[in-house]
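Contributing new records

If you add data, match the layout below exactly. Sequence lines come first and carry their own label; structure lines follow with theirs. Keep one chain per record. Anything else will be rejected by the validation script.
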Amino acid sequence: MGVRAEILTHATRLFAEQGYDGTSVQEIADAVGIRKPSLLYHFKSKDELRENVIAEMLAHWNAVLPGLLLKASTEERFDATMEALTEFFIEDPDRARLFLRETLDRPERMRAMLADFVTPWVDLLSAQLERAKEQCLVQQDVDPQAYVVEVITMAVAGTAVIDTMNVILPDDPARGGTRTRHARELIRVARSSLYTNDEGEK
């Protein structure tokens, strides 16, 4: 991992844990193991660093959502596709925590970034699900656009709090760890609330 990537990783963690205002550039530099001027060589200000952290996280949707667009409404490999959607946050819940914190703390800026990175794919996927409804592959009472937004919201918000919720959703030898149980149930709920039958399990 290069220095720039390390800076983004540690900034993501610290912003998620302490908030933007509660985190200094010096703290991030210390976490990376470099001097503050070296960090500022890569990112000219804390605000520029914040923008890059969020932009890189949202850019992930440009890789994940095309797969959802092509596969989710056809029932083919639905579980694998949903796993791709949740894996990015499950493997590092700080991403979900930061996403949630920024959405609450800076709603106007997040709206602009969501519009750039996410809205185009949500609109395309919603149109695909509308066509699937016409073919009776998807339940008729599904609101495709709201469905996509709800799945994203569940994936982000649920993952953001999952390590705290383990007191009521503990690791279970028979069912797996807390994060695994969360991801599995999210996929089951998403599948069963979309299709007209159980073929989404294929």
